[in-house]
Records
---
Amino acid sequence: MPTHRPLLRSSTVPFLASLAAAAGMLFLFSHLGPLDGAVPGARRLLRNVHVVDLSGGRPGADAVDFLWQDGLIREVGQGLNPAGADVVEGHGAWVLPAPADAGVFLSLEGRLPADSVPAEAAQSLRLQAGAGVGLLLDLNAHRSFMAAARALPDPKPRVLFAGALFTAPGGWRLSGQTPWNSHLAEILETADLDAPWQRLLRFGDQAVFASVEHEGRDDLAIPLPVLQELGRRAREQGLPFIIHVQHHAKALQALQARPSALLGPIIDAGDDTALAKALVAGHCAYLPALGSVLNAIPGQALEAWQRGFPASASVAVETLRQATDPDRAGQWVKHWTRQDVTTAQVLAVPAALAANGATLALATGSGLPLVFHGVGLQAELAWMSRAGLSQSQVLTAACVNSRALLGQGAGRLAAGQPADLLLLRADPMSDPSAMERVQALYVAGEPVPR
């Protein structure tokens, strides 16, 4: 996994100097040598598995074998028998690239998240691994969590961290949501990007995250010139630049900052075709994050599940039913009611964008109220299906486009790609509930304990 030098550095912080030196010793996954979490020199042969055909082609294709070494797939074919490789029998399992979640909050604090976030880093990652998630981007990490997560032994899901959450004064926070111990960076002018608070950054940024939302405000919460400068710095570092936006008009403005992705959901009515064309022209992906809104309205959500969601939603439904706190849920219902949000309106956007050529990727918003780690993946996949996306579109968003967005391979099971594999007991293209029946998760070629 590539580790990048900080987006904004201060020569007064010795740790950052050592971090920059360490960065010179790391490499991109496409270079020779093992990935993070890989056992150097380890060779493993996975026999007798079926590759999930995301194109919607014929199921039941002939079984194949996978050979990987140093965390990278070396060969895919039939009848492979290399000397000295550890052999794992796949027993006819179905395999696809391990899903990547490009928008989670692993360690939020405050009164509202409560049960959504475990107290310990190990538990958060265990829940994600249990659902088969192999790669995560934490959009605004608790400082102590970051240290604890990085100290956990491999193998574990790959975790990338965004640095500060860039927002405007008064932005991002909702009524009832207390600030958490994180890097919340409030900016209104370009000069704010070089303010003294930067000295508090003690890690290498692996993505840049900004929110241009502010309830009751029609324009961008961060002025466009500032947002454009933030994007320029992100591109200079080669980092994904993700902007949180929930309104059509703001999304069209924010695209002028050339982000890598917009994080939704879009909650108002607008011209989806125009937005899709702008996303395509800007080579920008869209992360619907439907559960971050719809799970937070339990009455609507549970009713929707019961009206015909795929069987893959069953675990998430029961978790929501057991964990819903009327007081917390009521606060969020009031918030979304003030903005006149309806389930149908939120669900209408992703399929319309996809139909007009936009690239959709996966972000669950896990860690936000009533979006639970692990089952948050199942809930999001079910919401995307409910929105009208085909199973091919849903799985491509989760297993291909998100990985490409985060720079962790092209989401293909081919030689030279990371050996991040999810093994299922059935074909998820014909049976969406197969995503619940995980047989094994491999990250950098190593089996992750579940």
---
Amino acid sequence: MSRHLDKINGVRHVSFAGAWMGFGFHEDGFAAGSHVAKMLIEGREKTGTLNLMGRLDDMVHSEVGYWRHILKLGVLAVQTLIEDIFTK
């Protein structure tokens, strides 16, 4: 939803900003608020669009798969270690 807000933000002097525009972190709310403030000062036409979710859109599937395999390997190593400790 937040990726389409640039179509209505600033229209009729109404803008939306909040942490809900990204992942819900305080930093997302700050970035959204700063973007609206910049838009109010510089004008809607001169301010680019805000994309707090851009990193996910740019991430390719193989990159996600690579980190998933590393995480699985780490979990397997911890499980094996715990099993060795408690079976002795």
---
Amino acid sequence: MPENDTRLTAGVHVRFTGRMVFGLLVIALGVIFTLDSLGIVEAGPILRWWPVVPLAFGLARLVGAGGRRDVGSGLFLTVVFGWILLHNLHFVRYDVWDFWPVIFIVAGAAILTGGFRRRREAVGGQNGAPQIDAFAFMSGTDRKVVAPDFRGGYVTAIMGGHQIDLRGAQTSAGPATLELFVLWGGIDIRVPEDWKVSNEAQVIMGGVEDSSRIPPGEPRGHLILKGFVMMGGVDVKN
């Protein structure tokens, strides 16, 4: 069974992705507001529990349930939305937004330690993994992928950014899928001239711009972008 899938029944697989979480949250809110409008339930007490959905997603990413394990984004989502839930239930006095000045503390520490300097990495190769797992929080990475059977991976940018160069990669095992989670961050992706790009990411107050040229003949590679982009941007070019 593939690492990124969870088997439900024979021959059926479901991936626990950011798009799925966002879709479930929107559906749940629609149902609650509809029932409230009809006078069946009161939305206020129920809406206190809304952080449960992104909290569950964070815990899943943290332990690797239903997908590849991502400690960085999983820990961030678990702490933030867990705190919001505890505040909504009056278990903690302070709101998570009361701690926003901590951003300056983290930024200052990153500047002093050189955390904002981009790290250059070569990912993949003849003996390398066919997937990438990139995380950036108030920092940046510069990755060059040279895997001969690139299949995609997970890229998280929270108030940070990534530059991912896929021009040395190949997709011999079929389309490559990048699961994106972008929050106040940005991702620049360079693809080979003979690749096509499909965007299936969910975007809120952000953007995904595909500036890559359409291959003149049959594409020799296919990159699929999925995931969630909020108040951030993704730029794809050759």
---
Amino acid sequence: MAETLLRKLDLRDSFGWGISNAEITDILARAPRKLLADVARVEKPEAYFASQEGPGVRRALKNIQESAWWSKHLTDKMWRYSLAATLTSIAGSLMVILLSLNTINDYDILSGTGRVVTSILMLVLSLGLIRLTRGYHNFHQRAQQAETRAEELLNADCSKIDAIKLYNEYHLDRAAAPLIPDLVRKWNQERLNGLWESYRRD
């Protein structure tokens, strides 16, 4: 539901396409009461995109460029975190096995150690850390391509159809990618906002 709402808000901000009352009532009806109470306490929502362009093709491309830039950097961190967690778990488990075989002679202790190591390796597989790493890495590359393509279209005579096509491709890739934890976004928000404001804003 949040992803659907985000796409609608992006389209409204980019092209000026309104969200109908029917869509708003459906979203509000499905939203948890706690979330609605939190939203009601927000005095003035901050601008989601930095572009100063009016709604249209150029604003849409600038919004895609900014969003893809953010996604590129956040997923770069996430695939590295996931890879580090995967490799640490596997390497740690193998080290424990090797040390146990060389230093422990008691069969019961060795058997228990083997079960613990097996559990850790099964946890890595069940949590999908390998798939998660691949998903973040793939989206990192797709976001980089979307950012580059948006830059190319901004410097060319781009039609609305080209902008909508790029918008849809990027959002489909984002919907298929693993979610980026909100904590990671908050950790990096101030620094990335500062970089964008200083070097990339209109």
